[in-house]
From TrEMBL:
Mg(2+) binds at E142, D159, L161, D162, D293. Pfam families: Inositol_P. Its EC number is 3.1.3.25. This is Inositol-1-monophosphatase. GO terms for biological process: inositol biosynthetic process; phosphatidylinositol phosphate biosynthetic process; signal transduction. GO terms for molecular function: inositol monophosphate 1-phosphatase activity; metal ion binding. Pathway: Polyol metabolism; myo-inositol biosynthesis; myo-inositol from D-glucose 6-phosphate: step 2/2. Its cofactor is Mg(2+). Belongs to the inositol monophosphatase superfamily. It catalyses: a myo-inositol phosphate + H2O = myo-inositol + phosphate. The gene is LOC107478431. It is an enzyme of class 3 (hydrolase). Keywords: Hydrolase, Magnesium, Metal-binding. InterPro entries: IMPase, Inositol_monoP_metal-BS, Inositol_monophosphatase-like, Inositol_monophosphatase_CS.
Length: 365
């Protein structure tokens, strides 16, 4: 079987790693978002502080939703960094491929939150590649937690098997996701998506570095140009805790199902965001994701020309508790519904502070 890798720049851990109706909502919310983003822009949104090879983002999108990607890959050259990222992700993916048609050894982190031996073996294989090349870098793995030196400017966010439940059932929506942050912002990442199904498993590759564009199987990709919600196909996700945020998103799912071509729930955040970058869906949103869920995918979307924000419309970082990614042109229209719903959660005291940020890790967020 062939193996392909997605790449792009970018288990519950103990809290010790934490820092700290169906009517269309008022269109004035979009105007409030513009004011929220008055600070934090690049000095000129029509130019990028990146190498000349970087394709600048759409200036209209940049004006409203600041870039989440790192300004550079730091002292590690982009070509070197992305090659190690891709190798790490592909090595983990080979572990998954070797296990995909075999019986699963399943344990539980929660009532319905699965983990398999394959998750652990994939993460171990990825860590070996990272440590061999960058022994001084900090690592945040879904299964293994924090490893390395918090003084490092680099943080590797590793999901060795995104969509474990799908994998356990042989349902084709799971991936290996590796994203690297430079001073807290995505610099490079790789996602290996498994496609097909039992008896015909395959993979495909997306790749990107900050300022270098996004690719699928080596070919440049772009988000879609769909500018009407009613002509869009959307994706969302739901966590394992059936709390207020879960209930709010059930309502959003219902609302957008009524006004779009449909809302899908595939169960693997990295895959969902790669699909936005590929242009086959227009947007994806979800509450309560972790850094390893988002670090690769958000950079992929941004480098494919899309927009990234929190679900309240605020400036996003990978330690946030919500994310909305889109093709850019639909972003404000989606926020007209998603934004007020999220503000209502905040008014009820739901915690949206940063989480899973390693203690003492220096991040420009």
């Amino acid at each position: 079987m062939s193996l392909m890798v997605f790449s792009a720049a970018a288990a519950n851990l103990s809290p010790v790693f934490s820092v700290v109706p169906r009517h269309k909502f008022s269109p004035t919310f979009s105007e409030r978002i513009k004011r929220v983003h008055h600070f934090g822009y690049r000095s000129n949104p029509n130019h990028c502080f990146k190498p000349i090879t970087q394709p600048c983002r759409n200036s209209l999108i940049s004006d409203k939703f600041p870039a989440v990607g790192a300004r550079s890959t730091g002292p590690v050259a982009p070509d070197h960094l992305i090659e190690v990222v891709k190798t790490a992700a592909q090595t983990g993916a080979q572990v998954v491929m070797d296990a995909v048609n075999k019986p699963r050894n399943i344990t539980y982190k929660g009532l319905t939150d699965l983990v398999t031996e394959t998750d652990k073996m994939s993460e171990a294989a990825i860590l070996e590649i990272v440590n061999k090349n960058f022994e001084d870098h900090l690592i945040l793995g879904e299964e293994g937690g924090i490893i390395g030196d918090a003084a490092s400017d680099y943080l590797w966010c590793i999901d060795p098997l995104d969509g474990t439940t799908n994998f356990a059932h042989g349902y084709p929506s799971f991936a290996v996701s590796v994203g690297v942050l430079y001073r807290g912002r995505p610099a490079a990442a790789a996602v290996v998506e498994f496609v097909g199904g039992p008896m015909c498993w395959n993979t495909r590759t997306f790749s990107a570095t900050t300022g270098g564009g996004a690719f699928c199987n080596g070919q440049r990709i772009r988000v879609s140009e769909t500018n009407q919600v009613e002509r869009s196909l959307l994706v969302t996700g739901f966590g394992y805790d059936h709390d207020d945020a879960w209930a709010t998103n059930i309502d959003l799912f219902r609302e957008f199902t009524d006004v779009s071509r449909g809302v899908r729930r595939l169960g693997a955040a990295a895959v969902d965001m790669c699909h936005v970058a590929l242009g086959i869906v227009e947007a994806y949103w979800e509450y309560r994701l972790k850094p390893w869920d988002m670090a690769a995918g958000v950079l992929m979307v941004e480098e494919a020309g899309g927009a990234v924000s929190r679900m309240d419309g605020g400036k996003f970082c990978v330690f946030d508790r919500s994310v909305l990614v889109s093709n850019g042109v639909l972003h404000e229209k989606l926020l007209d519904r998603i934004g007020p719903a999220t503000e209502k959660l905040k008014s009820k005291g739901i915690d949206f502070s940063l989480w899973y940020k390693p203690e003492n890790y220096a991040a420009d967020v």
